Structures are given as structure tokens and as C-alpha cells.
Amino acid sequence: MPTILPFTPTYATVDLSALTHNLTQLRRLLSPGCEIMAVVKANAYGHGAIEVSRALIAQGIGRVAVVSIDEGIALRAAGIAVPIVILGPLFSNQIGDLIAHRLTPIISDRSLLPALAQATASLATPYPIHLKVETGMGRLGLATDQLLALIDSGHVPPSLKIEGLLTHFADSDGLTTEQTEHQLTLFQTTVSGLAARGRSIPLIHTANSGAAVRYPRSHYSLIRPGIMLYGYHTLPASVPAPDLKPVLSLQSTVAQIRAIQAGGTISYNATFVAKRPTRVAVLPIGYADGFNRRLSNRGAVLIHGRRANVIGTVCMDMVMIDVTDIHETTVGDDVVLIGRQGADRITAADLAEWTGTIPYETLCAIGVRVPRRYREMPDPVSAPS
Questions:
Q1: Active-site residue among 41, 127, 132, 360?
Q2: Residue 369: per-residue pLDDT
Q3: CA dihedral 182, 184, 186, 188 (to 10 degrees)
Q4: For residue 384, what pLDDT is reported?
Q5: Cα 15 to Cα 375: distance, rounded to the nearest angstrom
Q6: Which helix (H) or strand (E) holds 94?
Q7: What is the mean pLDDT of residues 297-322?
Q8: Tens digit of each residue's pLDDT (9 = 90 or more) over 177-233
Q9: What is the dihedral of CA 45, 51, 54, 59, to 10 degrees?
Q10: CATH 2.40.37.10 is held by the domain 248-375
Q11: What's the helix, strand, coil split of the chain in %, to 5?
Q12: Which of 127, 232, 268, 275 is catalytic?
């Protein structure tokens, strides 16, 4: 029997066939011998890390990445068995949980190695780690000379296996290429230095979504796409982007309709004053659900396939829209905040533009109290060889 979902007036729909489409587009970019490590941190950018990971694994993805130990443990608890790489910082008091759940750390600070060595000394096989090189992001990582000195010192314990080497680009979607090219050159210096020392590292990865498109020489053995899996990019207009499909749509329902006269006000602080008799629809969604307060008096939604403007201040739990010219609007009507209705579409990129941010933040902000409904994907296919 199919699962009957309870009615909820506000929900997100995650189209797993669109996810599969985007994965296919990214696979077409890959250099020979390169594979994909899917980034599912931040609840898969708001799409649901467990369900997205399962869908990607069914399509042949063999490794995923999150940012924290907690995110990794949640995937393990859901039965995700593939290698899980922790992109964020590791703390010494997390090492026990890391090993208990077979999570792969990225090491940016050599001071963690003694504690890791002690915790892994009794294991039957060396425990995999990745080393991060700081090449210009100004965040986590070892400088090239520090990393090579670590190798030369012989202080990498035998209970640890250097499985991966990586860096992180600061400007792969920027208007110019100078910084990324500089970072690539520094990183290649590290790779070459390790090769000269007889060190062969199986997993070398630098490319995020933007670099995967613009810098084929950054592919190495893995790319780490995030936002493009979910249907968006932040590439400059001069760079041809893959054919991507937004994976998530966000819907709500008209809860009440009211009329106000010219001069009447809407919501907190009377930021909207009606210039004419106005018909107002109230929606049960607000900034606590991820509909940004900066959309007050500037955002729009779709109802009956037409755009209706947000009026007044977006509240924690509700938002009001002007349906004066959409006469057929009634209580119970479907409203699209992200997605397509009729011939029109509003994307997370549109909301990001209206609020002065990026699609990443718009998607990640969709709150946990918004249920996710999953639209099934086609039958699994084999990953290309």
C-alpha cells in the first residue's frame, strides 16, 4: 500500500529525477579516470541528506562528503555504508566517534596526528585520512612546505593511511581566473613534491562545482560537486554552464483572504500602506521556514500561474501577498514560492537576487519544519566506467 502523507499546507518537493539529470550532466564533464564525491552537507543543501545520498548511491556514486561528525553519524544511522568524508575541522574529543562510525577525516592540523595514532593503533588495517593543503582560501589546511615537511619527518603514524589530498578554491566562480590558477599551481607543487618522495595518494581532489566546469586540470581523481547537483550555479555569464534542473520546489496554501481599503496597512511596523482597495492572501510560511525576511515588500510568489507580490513584513510564520488582480484566488489555493506554476517559474536564484545573497543560502535556509516530499527517480543505472 502506498504511504498516505498527512495534509500539510507548506512543504517542499524534491525531484530525484532532476537530481539524476544533474548528476548525468556533471559526469559528462569528467576527465578520464575522475569520479564524483557528492557533497551532501547542510542536509544536502536543504534537500534532505539521507534521501539524496540514497538516490545518488543508487546512481553509482561511491563516496559522499559532509561537514561535521554529526552529519556523518546521521548518515551511518540511516544505513549509508559508502565512505563518508568529513570536510570540516576535527577536534580531538571527536576521534572516538569518528572511528566508531568509520568516517574519513580531513586533517588540517598536524597536532591531531598523535591522538589519531593512539586511537587507531589497535586496528587491523591503517585508518584512512585526507590531508588538506591551504593554497589561498585562508581557512583550513597545511601550507605546502608544512605538508612536505610532515612527510619528510616521518611523523605520519603507520596506523594511518594518507588516502587523499585536497585543497579548496576561493574563487572558482569569479570573473577572473588568476586566483584559481595560482591555487592550482601551488597545489600541483605539493602533488609533485609528494611524487618526488615516492608517495602515491589515490584520491586527489580540488574541484568544486565551478571548478569542475571551468578548470579541467583540477579534476585529478575526484571532483566535489555540491550546488550543481541541486540544479544551480554561480558561474559568470561568460562561462557556459551545464544544463541543470532545479531539484527542489517550495509550495504553500492560501489560509485566509481579507480586504483592506486604501490607506490600510499590513503586518509589523506598517511597512505596506495600500494605495487602493487591496485583496490580501495570507500564507502559512515565514522566515522560520526559510522565506527570508528581506523578501518583505519585494518578493513574489505564483498563484494561478501569475505573480503576486509579497506585501508587508514577512513574519516568523506567515507572509501576505497581494491578489487584488488575481480575482479567482480563494482559500485553499496552491501557491508556489520556488518552482513552476503554469508558464512562469520562480527559482532559488530569483529569491537570492531579491535578498542579496546566493542560491546556496536560500536553499539551506529552508527550515526543518517544512516537510520534504520526494518524487521518485527512474531505475538506477550503472555508473560510467
A1: 41
A2: 94
A3: -150
A4: 39
A5: 5
A6: none
A7: 98
A8: 999 999 999 999 999 999 999 999 999 999 999 999 999 999 999 999 999 999 999
A9: -70
A10: yes
A11: 30, 25, 45
A12: 268
Strand order through the sheet with 35-36: 35-36, 222-223, 203-207, 160-166, 127-132, 103-107, 84-86, 64-66, 38-39
Interval 98-127: pLDDT, tens: 999 999 999 999 999 999 999 999 999 999
Assign a CATH topology to domain 31-229. Answer: TIM Barrel (3.20.20)
* Per-residue cell: 221: 581523481
Find out whether 113 and 157 touch, Cβ atoms under 8 Å: yes
Predicted confidence (pLDDT) per residue in 42-81, tens digit:
999 999 999 999 999 999 999 999 999 999 999 999 999 9
Does the pTM of the predicted model rise above 0.85? yes
Task: Indicate if 268 belongs to the active site.
Answer: yes
What are the cell numbers at 12? 517542499
For the chain, which residues make up each domain, given as ranges? 31-229, 248-375
Rounded CA-CA distance 196/328 in Å is 72
Contact 312, 287 (CB under 8 A): no
The alpha helices in the chain, defined as continuous H runs, are 16-27, 41-46, 49-58, 69-77, 95-100, 113-120, 144-153, 178-196, 209-214, 348-355, 359-364
